[in-house]
Specification:
12 helices, 47% helix
């Protein structure tokens, strides 16, 4: 049907997928890190302390001391192309676009920092995306990760007159495709090591223990991921023992146990001399994997008497990752695309 004269140009309707990750500063310098931390630690989903109590602490002690220290950590892992998290997430979006073809628009955003979720949703809408799948890349659900990513998207939608239809990717901690991707990636990287690990440690980002008691499923879903991964890896002969821990503590509150560095020290005392560490809660390598595990945790393991240590890469934009995302996304787009 011909449009009436002077009808505004309307883009051809499309379906979009927005991959979302946590966030990163724009540069590895104190000013950029301070801006990033101010946004991240002001999120009520992340720090569940009344703002009247928390903001003076954040704006006082934390944002005057922590940015310099964190900037130094970022400098140790920064790449020529930028933040590792941004580089890997962008590469995954590009590879998924190639895998899925032009029938769907794939883009990516960060919950904190750039590219911002609101800006990317606006750009996708301008391209004609009338249906968008929000895909937070967190296998295990937590209010401080999955929920706040969706919150930011919903807040952006609240400012739109013509909203796209929205779906959200559920957690995939026990999805057979996710476990298969982890196993394939672990097998591939372990085979490439110059040593044979005595054990595998699965390290997850920590959360305050109170989040578990408040109903957050993150701990339980992480435990299930490890159980399924252990079962998948048990088919090897001999099977590789799989242990579990939580990293990235912050503040004085009690956090989920066991803690990663303490677990590494304990394993050395139990006779583990060679270890490989995998981080199944992270979709892409970032500060927490490349600096906290590959550098600091390694130092702890070796200082305790360990001999060989390896951090196995996250799924990043690997073939295993793209196969996984293709399956997850295609399933969630059922009825929107063929």
């Amino acid at each position: 049907m011909n449009q009436p004269a002077n009808h505004p140009v309307i883009a051809t309707p499309k379906v979009g997928v927005l991959l979302i990750n946590l966030g990163t500063p724009d540069a590895p310098d104190p000013k950029s890190v301070r801006r990033y931390l101010a946004e991240f630690l002001s999120d009520r989903r992340v720090v569940e302390i009344p703002q009247l109590l928390w903001q003076p602490i954040l704006r006082g002690v934390i944002l005057t001391t922590r940015p310099k220290k964190s900037a130094h950590a970022y400098q140790q892992v920064w790449t020529p192309d930028g933040s590792p998290l941004a580089v890997h997430t962008g590469a995954a979006a590009h590879a998924l676009q190639q895998a899925m073809g032009q029938g769907v628009v794939i883009d990516w955003a960060m919950r904190y920092g750039n590219p911002a979720i609101a800006a990317k949703l606006a750009a996708m809408k301008a391209q004609g995306c009338e249906r968008i799948l929000l895909a937070p890349l967190y296998p295990q659900y937590s209010a401080a990760t999955t929920a706040t990513a969706n919150d930011a998207a919903f807040a952006a939608l609240a400012a739109m007159r013509w909203q796209p239809a929205i779906r959200t990717l559920p957690p995939y901690h026990d999805d057979p495709a996710y476990i298969a991707a982890l196993k394939a990636s672990i097998d591939r990287h372990v085979a490439a090591l110059d040593f044979v690990p005595d054990a595998l440690l699965a390290s997850f980002h920590g959360m305050p223990e109170r989040t578990l008691h408040l109903g957050d499923p993150y701990h339980c879903q992480s435990v299930k991921t490890v159980r399924l991964l252990r079962e998948a890896l048990s088919l090897k002969n001999p099977p590789l023992p799989v242990h579990m821990s939580f990293q990235s503590r912050f503040g004085r509150a009690k956090w989920l146990e066991p803690e990663t560095e303490a677990t590494l020290a304990k394993l050395v005392k139990e006779g583990v001399r060679n270890i490989a560490v995998v981080t199944p809660g992270f979709a892409a390598d970032c500060l927490e994997t490349l600096e906290e595990i590959a550098l600091r945790a390694k130092d702890v393991f070796l200082a305790q008497g360990g001999e060989k240590f390896a951090l196995l890469p996250c799924l990043n934009a690997s073939a295993e990752a793209i196969t996984l995302y293709d399956r997850l996304v295609s399933r969630e787009l059922s009825g929107w695309i063929n």
